[in-house]
Amino acid sequence: MTYFKRTAVLGLMLASTSAMAQQVDGPEVNWSLSMWGNPRALSAGIEAISDRVEEATGGKFKIEVFYGGQLSSSRENLDGILLNAFEGAAICNFYHPGKNPAWMVFSLPFLPLGDPKIDKQVRSRMFEHPAIVADMAAWNAMPYLTGLLPQYEVLGKGPAPTELSGWNGLRVRAGGGLGDAMEALGATKQTLPAGETSTAFQRGALDAAAFPYTYAHVSFGISEEADWFTSNLAPGTSECGWVLNKTAYDALPEQYQTLLMDLRDMGMDVEQEAYATQDAKNLPVFRETMQEIVYSEEQLAEFRKVAGQPVWDAWIEANKDKFDAQGVFDAIFTYAEEAAK
């Protein structure tokens, strides 16, 4: 990150917390958070919160993020929280759909989350939705900070699918409803963990990968393997956010709990600033080194027709007996409408 951008993020942190007391007294507490991969835009928000917590408590409350799966694999972070192995973790909903069925709503295609301001408001409210909270409660966890992942786009190798028919037969890394949307185009979906995707390309086991655009394609080396990229497919996103160990949170003194909750807004602002910074850096490189696919409005309308409502309806039907799937789905649209006013 450039000096200018670092300064901008720092200014954002200070502005967001200027009204907060400079010192929060309390006992010494050390927390460990589990994360796969390397530090990246997705982790910028939680790192900013960690810095602010340490500063506000005079170093008494420290939060350290352990990267590279040091504490747990990406698919087992919820298991680690249940076992009280650490105090928090990042999770991706489609890594373990059976563990967080209601969270899979975030991976449905064509949700009204394209505007960053609306996305922030909707996801913040969804993190308080009873079904979303209940999914985490089953693992002794609690939703804390949404990752606010940008819309996904697809990078791939081989012939570029400039027509929708070109997706037929392609093996595409895409989870949840996004994967279902790609299947509607004739692709074969795969739900590889992010860290295994580049290797799958190298071995010839994968043709394309959908990731949050653009930061994740670079973070996991996909852009180094790809020949082409889509720039306006915008099939949807997912939820890779941060959850806390409820036992550990409940054990905190009230002033530490309040501090953590008050810092969420700042953390989300830092995340979105980090994504924008990466886009400004990555897009010129993408356009220089890969073929850009821009679909027409007619093509996009056809994609939404075959992969929108049918995928929504199938998800609601499959989950209606597990939780209020219709209510969870409707909440996304209700919150988006209210945020747009």
TrEMBL record:
Q: Does the keyword Hydrolase apply?
A: no
- Please state where this protein is localized: Periplasm
* Assigned GO CC terms: periplasmic space
Query: Which segments of the protein form a coiled coil according to its record?
Result: none
Cleaved signal peptide residues: 1-21
Tree of life domain: Bacteria
Q: Which UniProt keywords apply?
A: Periplasm, Signal
Q: What are the GO BP annotations of this UniProt entry?
A: transmembrane transport
Tell me what this protein is called.
Answer: TRAP-type mannitol/chloroaromatic compound transport system, substrate-binding protein
